[in-house]
Design brief:
Layout lengths: L7 E4 L5 H12 L3 E6 L2 H13 L3 E6 L5 H14 L5 E4 L21 H23 L3 E6 L20 H22 L5 E7 L7 H5 L8 H13 L10 E3 L2 E2 L9 H15 L11
Parallel strand pairs: 1-2, 1-4, 2-3, 4-5, 5-6, 6-7
Antiparallel strand pairs: 7-8
Helix pairs in contact: 1-7, 3-4, 4-5, 5-8
């Protein structure tokens, strides 16, 4: 992986699991880190560990189940840095709902669609001015091999709900967003890619689903870091990776009309929070 001295990286969901490993590795390679999570104690602990190793980091708290909080998070990033070289949309929730059934976000949207996908859609768009100013820059969406086609007649899954279906739909949405945004940003110097980092890593999310882990967060981190900083991938965009290997996602990801419909829906849902940040381009 390339040395990242002078670069700034922002990793959502980086106080636990694979995001924590990725953040620590980026900092060790010289990047200034913006760490995100909901738990301030865990966030401050990671920041202290990075600083003790000679790195630079700052913690930003936000609950991505609220689009207003996502907006506030973007404003906090902008207030702390004049550049952003790497954005990793890693935060998410899994298939388990603790028996709660269908859940909704603070804005009334199906919770997994809101947290896993819609928050990253809004956050990325709000941070594009910083990414443009830092080009060449990279955006990485941490998705999953678990994907299910979006039913545009019932995106919020008000009928036939299951946590697994909701999770898989949200992860495909992340991939569709990466491919769609890559086309929009062609020639800008910003690349956008998505990946399935590893299968059933030893994370809180996997254990909460009652699954025995098959792989480690270190393995998943290697795959994420590959897209975030590997020199050989410079300029390559709109791709989906399974681990370290380029792969094919669900066929809906390559349907231009479906991607347009998703973009249109997402734009309308996030519009009240999407006006350009103060000082943004």
């Amino acid at each position: 992986m390339a040395k990242l001295n002078g670069k700034c990286a922002f990793v959502t969901g980086s106080t636990d699991g694979v995001g924590r490993v990725v953040a620590a590795r980026l900092a060790a390679d010289g990047a200034s880190l913006l760490v995100h999570g909901r738990d301030r104690a865990r966030g401050e602990q990671l920041v202290a560990e990075i600083k003790n190793q000679g790195g630079a980091a700052e913690f930003l708290a936000a609950d991505l189940a609220s689009l207003r909080a996502v907006r506030g998070l973007a404003e906090a990033v902008q207030a702390r840095t004049e550049r952003l070289d790497i954005l990793i949309n890693n935060a998410g929730i899994g298939t388990a709902s603790g028996g709660a059934g269908r859940q909704v976000s603070a804005d009334g949207h199906e919770l997994r669609f809101a947290v896993n996908y819609l928050s990253g859609f809004l956050l990325t768009h709000l941070l594009l001015p910083l990414l443009r100013a830092s080009a060449p820059a990279r955006i990485v969406n941490v998705a999953s091999a678990g994907q299910q086609e979006i039913d545009f007649a019932d995106v919020m899954l008000t009928r036939g709900y299951s946590g697994t279906r909701a999770y898989c739909q949200s992860k495909l949405a992340q991939i569709m967003f990466a491919i769609d945004l890559a086309e929009t940003l062609k020639g800008s110097g910003i690349t956008v890619n998505a990946l399935h980092p590893a299968t059933y890593m030893n994370t809180t999310m996997v254990r909460a689903a009652g699954v025995t882990p098959w792989s480690s967060v270190e393995e998943g981190a290697e795959a994420i870091l590959n897209l975030a900083a590997e020199p050989a991938l410079e300029g390559r965009s709109g791709l989906y990776f399974n681990g370290l290997n380029e792969a094919r996602a669900n066929r809906q990801a390559y349907d231009a009309e479906a991607r347009h419909r998703l973009r249109d829906i997402s734009g309308k849902l996030t519009e009240p929070f999407a006006q350009a940040l103060s000082g943004g381009a």
